[in-house]
Amino acid sequence: MENNISEGILTGVRVLDLTRMLSGPYCTMMLADHGAEVIKIESELGDSSRANGPYRDDDPEKDWAGYFVSLNRSKKSVQLDLKTKSGKDNFRKLVTQADVVVENFRPGVMERLELNYEELKILNPRLVYGAIRGFGDPRSGESPYVKWPSYDVVAQAMGGIMGITGANPNSPTKVGPGVGDIFTGLMMSFGIIAALRSADSTGEGQFIDVSMYDAVLSLCERAVYQHDYEGIIPGPEGNGHPLLAPFGIFPALDGQVAIGIVDDIFWSHLSKCMGLDKTGEDIKYFTRAKRRANSIIVNNLVADWTKLKTKSELTQILGGKVPFGPVNTIKDIYDDPHVKIRKMIASVPNSDPTKKDWRVAANPIKFSLNPTPKYKTPPKIGEHDEDYLRKIKSDSANSDFEKTKSLRNAFGNFATGVTIVTTNDKNGFPRGFTANSFTSVSLDPPLLLVCIAKTAFSASTFKKSELFAINILSESQRELSGLFASQEKDKFKLAKWSVGPKSLPIFRESIAHFICERHKLVDAGDHIILIGKVQEHAVFDGTPLGYFKGNYFSVNHDQALIEAANTGELVDIGGVFSKDSKILLQETNNQKYIIPRAPKENKSKIGLCRLLENLDLEPQLNFIYAIYRDTETKSHTIFYNGTVNGKAPDGFKFFKLDDIPLKEILLPAERSMLERYKREFKHGTFGFYEGSEKSGTVRKISPTENKYEIKGAK
Fold first, then answer.
1. Which H helix or E strand runs over 598?
2. Is the dihedral of CA 26, 27, 32, 37 positive or negative?
3. CATH topology of domain 14-164+178-217+381-388
4. Which among 159, 192, 265, 401 counts the fewest CB atoms within 10 Å?
5. Does domain 247-335 match CATH 3.30.1540.10?
6. d(CA 603, CA 596)
7. From CA 635, how far away is CA 513, in angstroms rounded?
């Protein structure tokens, strides 16, 4: 990111703004004010704040609502319908050339549009993606209110600020400005800047989640520690302070003034100004604790004095001597010399140069080298389509996107094992990443290679390291693989490992490891090839962890399928399908429920998927969840773990995990499996069941757990 001191400090940063109303537009306003190129992506109707007044008398067409002008100065506007293929295509083109995307839709909206972070980062690995939600994004922790809509008043109520604001405990009061929106937007702008800084150093963007509820709660920090320290539940206390006196609003002849006394020296100054020298020195009032204990008396003393004087008189007496200020109206603020000198009422050029400029609250952040650029006229809907859509590179980003996905899928058709590559950084701390790009190269000399993405957090460490280890994972290490493929900062704290040869980190349950000296580094597009010369190696018993088409598989599990198929015995195929923490069940004729199964005429994975697809559902099979052999019928039943999208068709129903009608499950074996599924889903760690319909063994997908016995069907 290059900066010119004559421009805003964020000049060169491009932001795609999908936000509406207040929280998101306030965030992107903060960025635009300081030079970022903010492009509002609007539908044909535009941001709904365009239709929210007030409007000035010189705007009879009502084109320029004050709400919109204030928040959207200096931005650009591109009109796109993201529900259409062309709209999505053009948005993806813009993403390839952007630094930031910000949206404040409900969870799931961008996923349905196939424009979510996981999809967009394929196009642009450096992308910083900010999501503002009422109750946060499930990626960071799924709130029970995740699907609730929210506005400022809801955030203020639930986040706690309304409960401590007002005249008395019986009158909780909304704070005048939309702090639930504004503070959330401010927090997001901070998060974006921090993530941009990280992307500059690592080459990798990230997802940022700010909840309105969380932001307001953080504003109520005093209430949190009061409850912790004193066990009280703070409530509205008017304009005073529960811990300080005098501190709050006091009457004047023509309004009110604010006085806040914390330090004893300021109480001494105030007492002298009030002509109460002796009272001020009285031991009952001289310390902060004593004034708090006698707060009613102290506040009354001050009020009795201030109410006899005007705000102007009090300003002359107290200004500069104690923490003091008049309670200003907006007219007072417009006339205040502080506001004029600090340029806190700014002008936004009117779209019609014959009419006077709009006046808005200015950005309060001032930089010594990068002055805030002059604000520009807010955009009309689609005003900048020509600048961005017709001048984007002619090659289709959607084509690139589809090609990337297609190529990735094609590569995924090559089944591989899974490794974790480890080393130590210059300070001796272990570093590692998951890879399925391990390949033997040569026996003489003994060479192998792995690949690491240039955007990976540890890429710079591996480029400099002279030694590294490769751990070939066993089927029990699926969770370990996921950990080292994640963005978790301290992966080794959460893993079982030991110090191996050359002091390199190794994992105990791996089926093999290789200790390598760096032989060569090869630049290879968006990856780096690490060619290592094998110094030592070791092989252990176990079954390898497989990876195919973006999913893990177990060689043993698939072997069980082969054996079942080769026996000539009956095989049933079913699936435990989830959607939004709900399970899909099929209703029988006797008002019982079963797990969906492939039809008799096509007992296969394809048959199971076709069954659901014909019912307008979109199934996705992930991994084998259970295999059991019915001891009476001599048949095998194989269940997959999967997901499904769409509405439940006739004869099917979605159940929340806690509402699964276990007593109404027709088959005892399925009932037992669903009980296990509920537990495992909540803990986020699944197991694989193998046995009969009565008893068997669950192999938990975890690097630390051994096999454990499951009692049979109940």
1. none
2. negative
3. Rossmann fold (3.40.50)
4. 265
5. yes
6. 12
7. 40
Active site residue 277: no
Query: Given this structure, which CATH class describes domain 415-548?
Result: mainly beta
C-alpha–C-alpha distance, residues 413 and 161, integer Å = 54
Neighbours of 487 (CB within 10 A): 10
pLDDT tens-digit readout, 61-85: 899 999 999 999 999 999 999 999 9
What digits encode the pLDDT tens for the residues 10-38?
A: 999 999 999 999 999 999 999 999 999 99
Name the amino acid, one letter, at 206: Q
Q: Do domains 14-164+178-217+381-388 and 247-335 have the same CATH topology?
A: no
Place of tokens 């195919």: 548
pTM: 0.60
**What radius of gyration do the chain's Cα atoms show?**
32
Residue 586 and residue 652 in contact, taking contact as beta carbons nearer than 8 Å: yes
What confidence tier does 702 reach under pLDDT thresholds 50, 70, 90?
very low
Domain residue spans in the chain?
A: 14-164+178-217+381-388, 247-335, 415-548, 555-710
The 10s digit of each residue's pLDDT in 315-373 is: 999 999 999 999 999 999 999 999 999 999 999 999 998 999 999 999 999 998 888 89
Confidence of residue 678 (pLDDT cuts 50, 70, 90): confident
Please state which architecture CATH assigns to domain 555-710. Answer: Alpha-Beta Complex (3.90)
Q: Which residue among 17, 33, 99, 181 is the active-site one?
A: 181
